[in-house]
Amino acid sequence: MESAEIVAHIPRLRRYARALAGDNHRADDLVQDTLERALAKFYLWRRGSDLRAWLFTIMHNVFINQLKARRELALDDGVEEGLQSAPQSDPLELRDLDAALTLLPAGQREVLLLVALEQLTYAEVSKVLSIPVGTVMSRLSRGRERLRALMSGAATATNLKVVK
């Protein structure tokens, strides 16, 4: 295994981690944890399979584990800790998009980011998230519809029904 193969995917991993975590420091930690796990478990990767999808699968699993750990810690401390978006110095539209993305349910946001930002195919997203392709398609459709409504101002967080 050439480390250059994994190194080539780091920019995409960082971009996806920033979108998931909403905070540059947490995103960097997520990328580091992902790379550590990938290197430690590299013997599980099948040569000839999609290394990018394998790395995104690891990142997704690490992220979910970190969320669970934070929730457990918050419950133990009696304090709720949620994900917070990093302050944006970009144009207002990017700020609004970031805010709208945080209002999407996690499943819809993950699928939307993997398809739109990382340009994974439906089959690759299905594999990364361990969900059927049909679920990828429905989450993507509902996520896009909700994002359009939020960005156009036609919907607010309070009048959108949560669909799992």
Describe this structure in words.
- The chain is mostly helical and 164 residues long.
- The protein has two domains: 1-86, Rna Polymerase Sigma Factor, Chain: A (Orthogonal Bundle), CATH 1.10.1740; 88-164, Winged helix-like DNA-binding domain superfamily/Winged helix DNA-binding domain (Arc Repressor Mutant, subunit A), CATH 1.10.10.10.
- Helix content is 69%, strand content 0%.
- The protein is built from eight helices and no strands.
- The protein starts with a helix and ends in a 12-residue tail after the last helix.
- The relative contact order is 0.11.
Provide the structure class: mainly alpha
- Give me the Rg, rounded: 17 Å
Distance between the termini: 39 Å
Q: Helicity, in percent?
A: 55-70%
Average residue pLDDT: 80
Question: Unreliable runs, pLDDT <50, ≥5 residues?
Answer: 78-90
CATH structural architecture of the largest domain: Orthogonal Bundle
Spatial shape? globular
Under CATH, the topology of the largest domain is which? Rna Polymerase Sigma Factor, Chain: A
Please, what is the CATH homologous superfamily of the largest domain?
RNA polymerase sigma factor, region 2, helix turn helix motif
The total count of strands amounts to 0
